Amino acid sequence: MTTDRERWLLACFVAGHALADSRLGHIYERVCLEDPLEYNEIPRPFSDGDVERSDSLLTRLAAGFGAIVFFDACAEDAAKLLAERDLEGIAELLERQRGQRPSMPQTLAYARELSSVFFESAENRTAVELIRNQLLEHGSLTLHEIDFLLDAADGDTEALEDLQQYRARFSPTRIPWPDES
Q: How is residue 102 annotated by DSSP?
């Protein structure tokens, strides 16, 4: 990354993925701005008949692209570059579901539609902003830190203070993670 703008776009992308993963119950250790490519792989194995899992995966793949476009509609070209492999994954999953691979414009339209539904929620929009801002400040966040940010986005007035206390007590690199926060 060379500019503040690129860093901001990447933080939106990573925050969108982290939010979708958390809301959909997927477990991860941490997210960071230095190595976002882990989001760009389609989790395997995937069963063609598992529609619920397929819908969850489509949401996860669209979330990074959607977060950028939602917060800066002028940044769609940058979003396409960051989410290139995610968009390919969406096309692949839609091909598996429908028997025909969509064109890139169709894939983009689907990703826009899917992510707009996800970001209709005020809580999800707030969560992306909180996660993005914390990523810009700290560079990486653990699953536990993101849980505090989600609680804050969902209206827990003490969650940000709890996050500060958590950070004061536990190193973000400490393993094993504490069972209770």
A: P
